[in-house]
Amino acid sequence: MKELSLHLLDILENSVRAQASCIRILVVEDTKKNLLLLTIQDNGKGMGEEELSRVRDPFYTGQKKKVGLGIPLLEQLTRLCLGNLEISSHPGEGTSIVARFQLDHIDLPPLGRLPDTLMAIFASHPDIEIEYEHVRDECRWAFNTKKLMEELDVQNTQDLMTLLWGIKEWIEYHEEHMG
């Protein structure tokens, strides 16, 4: 995948399929530590020991398809960029994925269109609470879709669809003006 946001989208869709009601996303760009950190945590159905031991295998998938390349490709990219991938999960408690990359590595793809990725999940699954935080050195911004919908007094999906473009522009503005 040419952008990290596409890897993120793949993992977020996994969380949706795992019946998560809340997904937390953390993006940290630390130039002093030369580190890019992507963390995705959900409260979905989680995985047992056997499934967790197989999730990195490209020929294993918990879905009705023949291959599951999302996690194996992300892990390959972390290693290529002198980082690592950690996955922890417990049945009934959810899953946590932490991907670390050397921030200045020549093979690290750009973050890409994070606002588009966030809006794709938000618009297609408005019932799932998404907590997003982006930290770049000393600069930080965050939002929570549940709180945002409460503050905007969104009563139904029609109201939400009307507001989506404004929300997307708001996310784009904050992403573009990070430190």
Write a concise keyword list for the protein shown above.
single chain, alpha+beta, Heat Shock Protein 90
Written overview of the protein:
The chain has 179 residues and is α+β, with helices and mostly antiparallel strands. It has a single domain (4-176), classed as 2-Layer Sandwich (Heat Shock Protein 90), CATH 3.30.565. The protein is 39% helix and 26% strand. The chain has helices at residues 4-17, 49-54, 70-80, 114-124, 145-151, 157-176; strands at 22-30, 35-42, 84-90, 94-102, 129-136, 139-144. A 6-stranded mixed beta sheet has the order 3-4-2-1-5-6. Helix 4 (114-124) packs antiparallel against helix 6 (157-176). It starts with a helix and ends with a helix.
Mean pLDDT equals 89
Shape: globular
**Named CATH architecture:** 2-Layer Sandwich
Task: Provide the number of structural domains.
Answer: 1
| Global Rg | 16 Å
Q: Secondary-structure element sequence?
A: HEEHHEEHEEHH
Low-confidence stretches: none
For the terminal residues, how far apart are their CA atoms? 26 Å
Strand content: 25-35%
Number of strands: 6
CATH names the topology as Heat Shock Protein 90
What is the makeup of the main sheet?
6 strands, mixed
* Strand order of the biggest β-sheet: 3-4-2-1-5-6
Q: Give the number of helices.
A: 6
CATH class: Alpha Beta
State the share of residues found in helices, binned by percent. 25-40%
- Give me the secondary-structure category: alpha+beta
